[in-house]
Amino acid sequence: MIELKNVSKVYPNGTIALDKVNLKFNKGDFVILMGESGAGKTTLLKIIRGDEEPTEGTVLFEGVDIQRYNRTSLRRKIGFAFQDLTLIDDRTVFDNVSLPMQFRGASFREIHNKVEAVLSEVRLREKMYKLVKELSYGEKQRVSIARALIYEPIVLLLDEPTGNLDVDTARAVLNFVEVLNERGTTVIMSTHHLIEFGNKPKGIIKIRKGRIVGKEYV
Ligand code: ADP
Ligand code: ADP
User: Fold this and answer.
1) How far apart are CA 20 and CA 75, in angstroms?
2) Burial call 71-99: b when 16+ CB within 10 Å, e when fewer
């Protein structure tokens, strides 16, 4: 479903963030991308989503070079929640989650139903009209995931979704992601520390200094 062929990324300042990465992700995968801070995890996720262009190599999504893939449909098919959350603090949860749909010009009823559904999924239905700044960090993390789910993406990219969370909240977020994966969503998730999982993940990819140094498939 997603294939990286000989992908390198060198930032304009000369930093080599990724060095000849070859990877394949299949439909239904639940893959953990593990590596220390600065290893290249975020860069890899951005490249998979077409947000950063590789300096070298190609990324195929459904067999098509993502640089040629229709941008809008790529963004709908690949949901992402990055660590910095990028939520608007003084707007409601509803506004934050529905923003992508408002841009698309969906009807209010359509938007409302969809937002209600995704918020129920992340167990935040009752916080729909709260301002984001009134939420705890774990709740914000879930709002960010809810927003990523609004288009029912077939791939979900999560950048350190459990970073800064206490063990219980992290566990809850992971459980939820596992359920999504069981329903068929392909999940690629980065982390800099080993987390405890239930039956998942199906794969662990280790990355160090921009290179893939280990692949384990369970
Ligand atoms: P991780 O997500 O594993 O912490 P990143 O992909 O964020 O790693 O970063 C990989 C390397 O690229 C690091 O050395 C980081 O400092 C560098 N880097 C990331 N983004 C940029 C950028 N926009 N410009 C220059 N260097 C960057
Ligand atoms: P956590 O235990 O996850 O750190 P908090 O102690 O930050 O959670 O928050 C506990 C609850 O209080 C959450 O449900 C959150 O929505 C609510 N809350 C936190 N800060 C505010 C605030 N400034 N105004 C209103 N509600 C808040």
Assistant:
1) 25
2) eeebbbbbbbbbbebebeeeebbbbbbbb
User: Ligand 2: which residue has its CA nearest to atom 9?
Assistant: 136
Distances (CA, A) of 142 to 12, 23, 66, 126, 162: 33, 28, 28, 13, 10
pLDDT at 72: 85
**With a cut of 0.95, is the ipTM above it?**
no
Which of 89, 122, 125, 134 is the best mutation target for the ligand 2 pocket, counting ligand atoms within 8 Å of the beta carbon and taking the most? 134
pLDDT in tens, 106-129: 889 999 999 999 898 888 999 999
d(CA 132, CA 85): 11
Residue 161 banded pLDDT, cuts 50, 70, 90: confident
User: Confidence class of residue 42 from pLDDT cuts 50, 70 and 90?
Assistant: very high
Q: Report the nearest-CA residue for atom 2 of ligand 2.
A: 136
Domains of the chain with CATH codes: 2-217 (3.40.50.300)
Query: 199 has which bridge partners?
Result: none
Query: pLDDT averaged over the chain?
Result: 89
- The four Cα atoms 74, 80, 86, 90 give a dihedral, to 10 degrees, of 90
* Closest ligand by atom to 14 CA: 1
Task: State in Å: Cα 117 to ligand 2 middle.
Answer: 22
